[in-house]
Amino acid sequence: MLIGVPREIKNHEYRVGLTPAGARELISNGHDVIVESDCGAAIGFDNAQYTRAGARIIETPQEIFAQAEMIIKVKEPQPDECRMLRKGQVLFTYLHLAADPDQTRLLVESGATCIAYETVTDARGALPLLAPMSEVAGRMSIQEGAHYLVKAEGGSGVLLGGVPGVAPGKVLIIGGGVVGTNAAKMAVGLGADVVLLDRSLTRLRELDDIFGNGIKTAYSTVDAINHYSSNADLVIGGVLIPGAAAPKLLTREHIARMKPGSVVVDVAIDQGGCFETSRPTTHQEPTYVVDGVVHYCVANMPGGYARTSTMALNNATMPFAVSLANKGARQAMLEDPHLLKGLNVHQGKVTYKAVCDALGYEFHEPREALAQ
User: Fold this and answer.
1) Which of 120, 207, 233, 298 is the most exposed place for a label (fewest CB within 10 A)?
2) What's the pLDDT score for residue 125?
């Protein structure tokens, strides 16, 4: 199979779909790899490294899309990239379609087979290709939140860790999954006063075992969100419904009751955001203010630490990429129910129910779509 890796074109997105080591792995399995010139140069993967791995350097994205049988990316394809996709081509990347009707329409029109990292599962029902980026984003959320609490950045001037004689800042984390757990690790490390909310009692017990007295856990209810958000200096939103639009758990009324200069970080913004006042921002212009509260809603947070993120993502995606290349996309998905869960669009049909529910498409069962 001929695998193509274009340069990412989203604002301040320096991650790359395939490292030189990943390219070598696919080539050692008998495949050909073409990469766009300088696609990884910003994070230390230069053309010479790809060439030594056996990949060919291609000058333009148009050539990549025109030649490759499978495109491996990081972020969702931008409109110009969607228009270069074609029937029979495989796209393997993050998609987050439920919050993006325009991208969904363009992918449907392309006729391509589009497999979303974020809905591939494992034997435990977890999301192994989303997890590494959730780990990065969860840890980043506390760093960025602490940064924007700085008075000169529009924040309240609260130091999360406090100092002797001064109480630490209060952090509320909504969601106890991968994002929330990693946010809690960072917040505890800084010495903050941390409360974590979740709706799974099993998960709350697990978090109590992990953190002991380092954090306080509470069952997530409207009253709990009302109470803890009004006292928080920093709120992290890390809720996830796989493949679906995120629920709006922090309302405009909650934001209005928060202390001036407080900060909210919506890690769920890729799926539409879990705060009612959220809208996507970029690394170039990461924040805005609503009712005196600083909002950080960067839609590609892990791109800020692009080298670490790229390496972590490639570790997770490589076994699936090799399987897709070795067996062909159709056979690989039919043999692997977890990879099949990643199929979101196939030859003009939407094959992920949460996307259909969010955007009004007719749902096509993935196996039946592949059989046609």
Assistant:
1) 207
2) 86
Which one is catalytic: 96, 254, 346, 364? 96
Enclosing H/E stretch for 311? helix 306-327
Amino acid 357: pLDDT: 93
Question: Is 294 found in the same domain as 149?
Answer: yes
User: Six-digit token pair at 106?
Assistant: 């363009």
Do 347 and 107 touch, CB atoms closer than 8 A? no
Q: Are 138 and 182 in contact (CB under 8 A)?
A: yes
Would you say residue 126 lies in a domain? no
pLDDT, block means (10 residues), the chain with 372 residues: 96 94 97 97 96 97 97 96 96 94 97 96 92 95 98 97 97 96 97 97 96 96 95 94 82 95 95 92 95 95 94 96 97 96 97 95 95 83
Beta-bridge partner residues of 289: 294
Question: Looking at the structure, do residues 231 and 174 belong to the same domain, yes or no?
Answer: yes
Residue 240's pLDDT is what? Answer: 78
Predicted pLDDT at 120 = 96
Look up the domain containing 112 and give its range: 2-119+306-371
Q: Are 260 and 242 in a shared domain?
A: yes
When divided into structural domains, the chain yields a total of 2
Residue for token pair 């931008």? 78
Q: Give a yes or no: residue 79 inside a domain.
A: yes
Pairing of strands 293-296, 287-290: antiparallel
Residues 202, 102, single domain; the answer is: no
3-state DSSP helix/strand/coil % of the chain, to nearest 5: 45, 20, 35
Residue 125 lies in a domain: no
39 assigned to some structural domain: yes
Q: Which two tokens stand for residue 209?
A: 């075992």
Q: How far apart are CA 235 and CA 58, in angstroms?
A: 44
The one-character DSSP state at 259 is P
Give the residue from 299, 321, 340 where a domain finishes. 299
Of 270, 295, 336, 364, which residue is the catalytic one? 270
Residue 292: name the closest of 260, 245, 253 by CA. 260
Active-site annotation holds for 270 = yes
368 by DSSP, 3-state: which? helix
